[in-house]
Amino acid sequence: MSDFEQFHFDFYQSNYTIDDQEENLCGSIKSQTEENPPTGAVALSQKLLFPQGYTGQILQPTYSPDTLSHLSYADGFDEEPPLLEELGINFEHIWQKTLTVLNPMKPADGSIMNETDLTGPMVFCLALGATLLLAGKVHFGYVYGMSAIGCLAMHALLNLMSIPGVSHGCVASVLGYCLLPMVILSSSAVIFSLQGTLGTLLALFIIGWCSLSASKIFTSALAMEGQQLLIAYPCALLYGLFALLTVF
């Protein structure tokens, strides 16, 4: 036991320290580098042991071309048009078309009326079916069926009469917007019965209103001056079918 204690005491009372070793190692390496300049792998090892001070900029990111393109793309979102305009829904044009239909004497803007806008027509068709439903008439299928057949017939007729021609979407848009006065007639059927002299006169007035507005828009959009009455006649036949649904 005494030998072990003596060994234990000698072990812990040694003057050997790691700091002394590091100082000796550093001093020897520096003295060697002063006598013999380092070359090759020796220079590389010295760089690893004695790294130079960091000369970069802390927390200063560098921008690569990909990063700059990403930032420019993110800034480009402000220049993009609204989502409704990308979907073809322009409330300003919808309001102008509605005012044009409500005022048959107002000149129509051909550039706006030639757009394929089906938002207003869908709303007016739903409104017509809803008001007929309030009057106790479930005619949604008749409304959409007659609208589709009428659009196809008017498209064929207008392509025969006009030189530039017209698209299906433009015909459906104009006929759908001009269905707005018929919604007024079906709303009146909710309040009072249209099966009488007053109802007949009101239905004839609404038919003339719808056909006059539709023919005015078609002549301005397709440059068909002097042919408004020829266009108004088939339009009156189409809107007459909707009037029959509303009255009877």
Topology:
Elements: H1 2-12, H2 18-35, H3 41-49, H4 65-75, H5 83-86, H6 91-102, H7 110-113, H8 119-134, H9 140-161, H10 168-177, H11 180-191, H12 197-222, H13 228-247
Helix pairs in contact: 8-10, 8-11, 9-10, 9-13, 11-12, 11-13, 12-13
Structural overview:
The model has no long low-confidence stretch (mean pLDDT 76). The protein is built from 13 helices and no strands. It has helices spanning 2-12, 18-35, 41-49, 65-75, 83-86, 91-102, 110-113, 119-134, 140-161, 168-177, 180-191, 197-222, 228-247. The longest helix has 26 residues, at 197-222. The radius of gyration is 44 Å and the shape is globular. The chain has 248 residues and is mainly α.
How would you sum up this structure in a few lines?
The protein is mostly helical and 248 residues long. The protein is built from 13 helices and no strands.
Q: What keyword list fits this structure?
A:
single chain; 248 residues; mainly alpha; globular
